Amino acid sequence: MLSDLEIAQQAEIKPVKEIAKKLNIDEDDLEFYGKYKAKIDPKAIKSNKNGKVILVTAISPTPAGEGKSTTTIGLSDALNKLNYNTIVALREPSFGPVMGVKGGATGGGYAQVIPMEDINLHFTGDFHAITTANNAIAAMLDNHIHQGNKLGIDPTRIIWHRCLDMNDRALRSVIVGLGGSSNGQPREDHFDITVASEVMAVLCLSKDMDDFKERIGRIVVAYTYDKLPVTVKDLNAVGAVAVIMKDALKPNLVQTLEHNPALIHGGPFANIAHGCNSVIATKSAIKLADYVVTEAGFGADLGAEKFFDIKCRQTGIKPSCVVMVATIRALKMHGGVLKEDLKEENVLALKKGIVNLEKHIENIKKYNLPYVIAINKFYTDTQNEIDVLEKWAKENNHPISLSEVFTKGSEGGIDLAKKVINEINLHDGANTFKFIYDSEASIKDKITTIAKEIYGAANVEFSSQAKTEMSKFKKYGWDKLPVCMAKTQYSFSDNPKLLGRPEGFTLTIREIKPSIGAGFIVALTGDIMTMPGLPKEPAANNMDIVDGKTVGLF
Fold first, then answer.
1. Which helix (H) or strand (E) holds 218?
2. pTM for this model (two decimals)
3. Taking each helix axis from N to C terminus, what angle separates 126-146 and 238-245, rounded to the nearest 10 degrees?
4. Which of 41, 167, 257, 431 could form a disulfide with 96 if both were Cys (CB 3.0 to 4.6 A apart)?
5. Using CA atoms, how far apart are residues 419 and 441, in angstroms rounded to an integer?
6. What is the reported pLDDT for 135?
7. What is the mean pLDDT of the chain?
8. What average pLDDT does this structure show over 49-71?
9. pLDDT digit string (tens) for 500-538?
């Protein structure tokens, strides 16, 4: 069996200008990054379609793998094969997980976007621009203090972190400014991974450059000795950030293995950020296609909830259908099976693990959205296990499809595509999509609603620090913003070991942070970290260049 990398390397790849022609985009309106990648200026889009949005999400992830990106790409190819004008809109991979353990974000098997190596590595430099912009703000902040501190910034109340697009636990907490007075004021600082930077969130939620600059200016970086917020605008850093980011704001056009268009832009994680690709890319795709297939990171309790309650709330986007990806392997893990035993048939564990899928579907129903379950088929799945899952779905009136896009490409997703279109048509004109909480609710009530309604928590416990922050944020007028929960992706709870559908648990909110530029409040739960570390055996150990060709990249 060929690896994902080998399949991508052997694939025919067409010049990106040919892909652009399918979208009626002129070659002169492309900014080329070699032959196979290009940026699109949204202002150059002449079409004015109003495509329907299909959101792909998943059950709570496990080490067994769910294949959400694979399903997203395969579904898009299948819709195109059925002659539905479709674009897939994805996030860009973060370099940290590529070097770590999770892998890339270009799909797998015969449902991939290419050039796979470029996309998973440096791509068009968007993440480098975000990192540079983030750290330019940090440098200007420290320089302001060094040069007299006219704003009266309290160095002990700086909340802006530096960032790096790499898993590096040694940088989580550092001391800067050592070496004498000419090197700035010594203070504690922190590094986040780039995808957790508020600059990333702002990029992904801005509608254009003017909106981007307005949002960047609102970012709170510190507080004064009088406990007043200090913003990027106060530092006179908005213009510099805009200059750094001017190209990064444009979506990237590539192709699937079947030469269908793909827009890849932005990449916030869903466990520590809002987990969706850029608004600019999504809205560009809506103008260019009849159907837009996009994804939200990790399980539906994280990425999908944030897609609905943050991205849709801020943009007016209304999804027409949700695809819930599940694997029999992952459901068996939620039923208590160890990873090394997943090859063995275990119907009892499968039935036990279905509760995780049930909870995610219940949550989708709370938003009044139609859905289809996609069983991402693995070669280890037995017919007995498939029959059990399909029988459960039929008994509970859940639309379900066996997806084989990994091994068969678009052909393996035809049934899924037809069922998605059927659900969209059945509910067309009757889409009563709603949010899970009201904007006017307090921060505490919004968090409590998400914890109890989406996660199934019995109680929510707020630390004294979180209570102080909520009171302070209300004073500043930030309490009407939506909430972005930072939580482990492995469980509905804040304990990654509680798989399946935990009940009766208490969710602990340890800290609340402002992301005023992004337009939301971040609530950190449990032990969640904004700078991951590398595993004991990182994927980077297996990577190399042999005879001019990349090896070991998935």
1. helix 209-218
2. 0.95
3. 160
4. 167
5. 37
6. 98
7. 95
8. 92
9. 999 999 999 999 999 999 999 999 998 888 999 998 888
pLDDT value of residue 553? 82
Cα 436 from Cα 362, distance rounded (Å)? 12
Q: Give the dihedral of Cα atoms 471, 473, 476, 478; nearest 10 deg.
A: -130
Alpha helix (H) residue ranges in 257-346: 279-288, 305-306, 313-315, 328-334
| Residue 78 token pair | 């299948």
CA angle, corner 414, sides to 411 and 418, nearest 5? Answer: 170
Q: Any idea which residue has 């809205």 for tokens?
A: 283
Those residues whose C-beta lies under 8 Å from the C-beta of residue 464, and which sit 6 or more positions away, are: none
Query: Any alpha helices (H) in 82-125, and if so which ranges?
Result: 95-99, 116-120
- pLDDT reading at 256 higher than 80: yes
How many Cα atoms within 13 Å fall on the side-chain side of residue 541?
8
Q: Are 157 and 167 in contact (CB under 8 A)?
A: no
Q: What sign results for the dihedral spanned by CA atoms 183, 188, 192, 197?
A: negative
Alpha helices in 11-67 (DSSP H): 16-22
Paired with 425 in beta bridges are none
Q: Cα torsion for 160, 165, 166, 169, to the nearest 10°?
A: 10
Give the model confidence (pLDDT) of 30-53 as tens digits.
999 999 999 999 988 888 889 999
Question: Please, what sign has the CA dihedral across residues 426, 429, 430, 432?
Answer: positive
Q: Work out the pLDDT band at 60, boundaries 50, 70, 90.
A: very high
Beta bridge partners of 325: 58, 374
Residues 6+ apart with CB under 8 A from 55: 294, 295, 296, 304, 307, 319, 321, 322, 323
For residues 75 and 54, is the Cβ–Cβ distance under 8 A?
yes
Over range 392-417, report the average pLDDT. Answer: 97
